[in-house]
Amino acid sequence: MKNKFFKTFLNFTKNLKTTGAVYKTNKKVEQEVCSKIDKTSKIVIEFGTGYGNITQEILKRMPKDGKLYTFEVNEEFCTTVEKNIKDPRLFVINDSAENFGKHVKEPVDCFISTIPFTLIPKEVCVDIVTKSYEALKPERYFCKALYSKFHFKKFTTIFDDCSTATVLDNIPPVHIYYCKKTAIPNKMKGIKKKRFGLAKAF
Fold first, then answer.
1. What residues are paired with 181 via a beta bridge?
2. Where are the alpha helices (DSSP H) in 68-190?
3. What's the pLDDT tens digit per position in 75-111?
4. Which end of the chain has fewer CB atoms surrounding its CB within 10 Å, N or C?
5. Whole-model pTM?
6. Helix, strand, or coil here: 114?
């Protein structure tokens, strides 16, 4: 068990720039960040596959005819997940989150993200979040796990309704952002014109 812990710890720290974490999240974080997924969530996108612990939680909650597209820039993580999770609903894509539109053409029921926005250029963050909003079905959620509440106001700039939950028993504590696109959007009018301004927020 200790050897497995240290191997995982070393792999996460070795890839800290892409994972944004020193170790995988605990079960409660997995459950919280996936809490908006249910049997009506047929198309789900995950940003940041890692070793697939959250991926497995997503699959548990999805319908049998659903599709999960999970994006990961680390090829080693992709290979590990493809080897360990045998599920016909799962599509592991070795590409950046900002390119998800090239691979997924259907409207999305939920986004789950654990990618480290603090380590990504601001313009790229804005691009990912705005494209996610545009691809999301009304009354659905973009769920984000972060180690800080610092970014909350930034998401309220784009999404129509936002709330948070905190998992204190994870090390370090994790904040879950629940960002909703409502049936009558009120934040995205002229969003393309605002993208450069939004970059300052991120």
1. 140
2. 75-84, 100-103, 122-135, 152-156
3. 999 999 999 999 999 999 999 999 999 999 999 999 9
4. N
5. 0.84
6. coil
